[in-house]
Write a structure and sequence with these properties.
This protein is of the alpha+beta class and 300 residues long. The protein is built from six helices and 16 strands. The chain folds into two domains: 217 residues, Bira Bifunctional Protein, Domain 2 (BirA Bifunctional Protein, domain 2, 2-Layer Sandwich); 46 residues, SH3 type barrels, CATH 2.30.30.100.
């Protein structure tokens, strides 16, 4: 869901990235997965997640979820897909994630919808990053976070986050409401997948584990952790920020940040502030950065 992928998906040996049905394993509806159903039952008191809809292939889960809300679906809908052909990342960057792994779809795209939180809505991307990290940790991996929107395994990208805010007007209903689309692009099992260009730097949960991945268990763990994180955000934003800082591999590193205007900010990533901004310290002082592409600079 974020632009941790390039404009084209890498090709799997013996197949093409443009054919998402090539070598695809038999369909398994994650909405009926026992782990996912357990999480949905647990969410009934808060109605955080009301329904999961699983697609084999979509243009973009963000677009499918937004249209469903406009058609009258209530926030709490979760849209998941094995492959996206018109995904988008930050700044509208296009990408595809229709890669096929050793046991079928290599990725999972997830868009969870929610009403705009009353407290600190700008921190929701950090909540989402923590939730993906917790889902990967529950599977047995050791993730870290790269500000603002990447989840790392062994220092390599294995997931990304895109959170969008929309004002939704429902046909035939009075008024409008602000909603968030919390998009998570999960690289689940890329074992044996050839990668070139930027993709050579990516990894997946299956590679970190050296084993197959239970997609339903990962989705359930993600939704459960996202529910808990959103509740924690409303109760105590500073405590949630402390958790994020403890997991953030960017803090303490030399970084180069490409800002939206194209300029570069270089320095040490000193912290993440109360608004979720990366604080970069250089010879002229501390500079809060609200958006940008971050490169971790390796010594030497």
């Amino acid at each position: 869901m974020t632009d941790h992928r390039a404009d084209q998906a890498p090709q799997r040996p013996g197949g093409t990235a443009g054919d998402p049905d090539a070598d695809r394993a038999p369909w398994s509806d994650l909405a009926e997965d026992r782990h996912v159903r357990t999480v949905l039952r647990a969410a009934v008191p808060t109605a955080r997640w009301t329904r999961v809809v699983h697609h084999a292939v979509v243009g973009s889960t963000q677009d499918v979820a937004l249209q469903a809300l406009r058609d009258g679906a209530a926030p709490g809908l979760v849209v998941v897909a094995d492959a996206q052909q018109q995904g988008r990342g930050r700044r509208g960057r296009p990408w595809r994630d229709d890669v096929t792994g050793p046991a079928g779809p290599a990725n999972l795209a997830v868009t969870a919808t929610l009403s705009l939180p009353r407290v600190a809505p700008g921190l929701v991307p950090l909540v989402a990053g923590l939730a993906v990290g917790e889902a990967y940790r529950a599977a047995g991996a050791d993730p870290s976070l790269k500000w603002p929107n990447d989840v790392l395994l062994g220092g390599r990208k294995a997931a990304g986050i895109l959170v969008e805010r929309h004002t939704v007007v429902v046909a035939g209903a009075p008024g409008a409401g602000d909603v968030l689309l919390v998009g998570c692009g999960l690289d689940l099992d890329w074992r044996g997948v050839e990668r070139t260009g930027p993709a050579a730097a990516w990894t997946s949960l299956g590679e970190a584990l050296g084993d197959a991945v239970d997609r339903g268990a990962v989705l359930a763990a993600l939704l459960g952790a996202l529910d808990d994180g959103l509740s924690s955000l409303q109760a105590d934003p500073e405590r949630l920020l402390a958790r994020y800082r403890a997991c953030c591999a960017t803090i303490g590193r030399q970084v180069e940040v490409q800002l939206p205007d194209g300029s570069i900010r270089r320095g040490v990533a000193a912290s993440v502030d109360a608004e979720g901004r990366l604080v970069v310290r250089d010879g002229s002082g501390a500079h809060p950065v609200s958006a940008g592409d971050v490169v971790h600079v390796h010594p030497g």
